[in-house]
Amino acid sequence: MSWLNHFLQAHGSGSEQAIDQLQQQGLPHRRLEPWRFTDIAPLTGLTPALLKPRGAAQAVAHPAVESGVVRLMLAQNGCNFVLAPGSAQPPTGLEIESAPRGGACADSAWVFQLRDVLAGPALNLQLEPGESLRLELLLNPGEANALLTPHLQIHLADGASLELFVQLQSSENSLILFTSIIDLGNAAQLLEAQSLSGAEGAVLLSGAEVKQAPSSRYERSAFVHGWALARQEPRVQQTDGAAHTCLKDLAIADLDQIIDLHSSVRFDGPNGCLEQLQKALVDDSAHSIFNGSVQVPRLAQGTDASQLSRHMLLSNRARVDAKPELAIIADDVRCSHGATISSLADEELFYMQSRGIKREQAVALLKKGFCMQIINSMPALARSWDLLKQSL
C-alpha cells in the first residue's frame, strides 16, 4: 500500500468520491512540471499512523495582546481555535469550527485536494463594508508527530480592511497543511504576515487562493525557516484588474532542508499592479526553489508588474532553482522580472574586519541585513515578534 493510501486510511474523513479521486491522482511527482524540482522524500518519510492532532504548546511566551486585537490560538484538542487570554472579542462575522472541507476544483493545488478530505480547525471570517479588524492566529502544536490542517476562509466586503498575523511553529516530525481562500471586494484591503517556523523532520504544505476586485489591495509577507520540506503556493487573480498585489517572501534554509515557493498572479483586467520580491539564504546542502508565474492576457492592458528573486548562497553544496515566468499577451504593459544568485561579498567582510569587527559577527550582520528588507516591510502586528531570533 502506498504512503498516500496509508495516510488516507488513517485520517481521511471527507466524501468517498473525494478520497477516491485523490487516490487515483496519487502523490505529486517530478514528472509533473510544477513539482520537477521538489523532492517529497521528507513527506513520505513521515509515518501516517503516528500523526495525530495535537493541542497548543504549553508555557509558550508570546508578546502581550495589543488593545483591540483579536488573538486566536490552537485549542488543546488540536482540532479547533479558541480565544487567547487577553484577546479582544471577535466580530459577529467570525466563525470557528472543526470539519472537513470539500469542493476543491480540478485545477486546485494538490494541498487543497488533500486538505479537503481531512477534518481540522477552520476559520470563516466575513467583514461588512467599511469594517476593519486586526487578527492574530497562533498555531503551535505542542507535541511531536502533529497533524495540523488549519483552513481560513476570508471575505472582505467593499472597503473592509483586515490586518492578519499568522504565527506557526511546528513540532518535530509533524505535517502541517495550511490553506486559505480569500475574496477581496472593491477597495478592500488585506495586510497579511506569516511566520512559519519548522522543527526537525517537519513538513509544511501551504496554499492560498486569492481573488481581488478592482481597487483592492493584497499584501502578503512570509518568513519561513527550519522545515525539512516547506512548499508554499499562493495564487492570486485580479478578476477585473485595477488592483494592487504585493508578495514578499523570505526563506532561511540550512542542513538538507527544502524550501519551495510556487506563486501565480493572473491579471484578468487592465491597470493591475504587482510587486513581488523573494529572498533566500541557503546554507549547507539546503535547496531553495522559486517558481513565480505572472500571466498578462490581452485584456490586461496597462499592467505594471515587477518580480525579483534574490538568493544568497552560503555553501558550495547549497542549491538554488529559480524560474521567474512572465506570460504576456497584452502590448501596453510595464513588466519586469529577474533572478540573482550571490554569496557574501569579500569586500564587505574585509571592510568590517578592518574596523575591528570579527568575521563571525560580520557574517551575521550581512545575513541579517539581507533579511531585514522583508522583515521591516511586514505589517505592524508582526513587529512585536522577534522573527529572526532563532533563525540566524
Summarize the structure in words.
- The protein is 14% helix and 42% strand.
- The chain has helices at residues 3-11, 16-25, 41-44, 110-115, 346-353, 359-375, and strands at residues 70-74, 81-83, 94-98, 121-127, 132-139, 147-148, 151-156, 161-169, 175-184, 189-197, 203-212, 217-225, 229-238, 244-253, 258-267, 273-282, 287-296, 304-313, 319-328, 334-343.
- The chain is mainly β and 392 residues long.
- The two termini are 41 Å apart.
- A ten-stranded mixed β-sheet has the order 2-1-5-8-10-12-14-16-18-20, with helices on one face. Strands 3, 4, 6, 7, 9, 11, 13, 15, 17 and 19 form a ten-stranded mixed β-sheet that branches.
Features:
392 residues, mainly beta, 10-stranded mixed beta sheet, 6 helices, 14% helix, globular
Q: Write down the overall geometry.
A: globular
Quote the distance from N terminus to C terminus. Answer: 41 Å
* Average pLDDT over all residues: 92
N-to-C order of helices and strands: HHHEEEHEEEEEEEEEEEEEEEEEHH
Summing up helix and strand content along with how strands pair, one would put the structural category as mainly beta
Number of strands: 20
Helicity, as a percent range: 10-25%
Number of helices: 6
Nearest-angstrom radius of gyration? 21 Å
Sheet bearing the most strands, described?
10 strands, mixed
- Would you identify the regions where 5 or more consecutive residues have pLDDT less than 50? none
Content of β-strand: 35-45%
Taking strands numbered 1, 2, ... along the chain, how are they ordered across the largest sheet?
Answer: 2-1-5-8-10-12-14-16-18-20
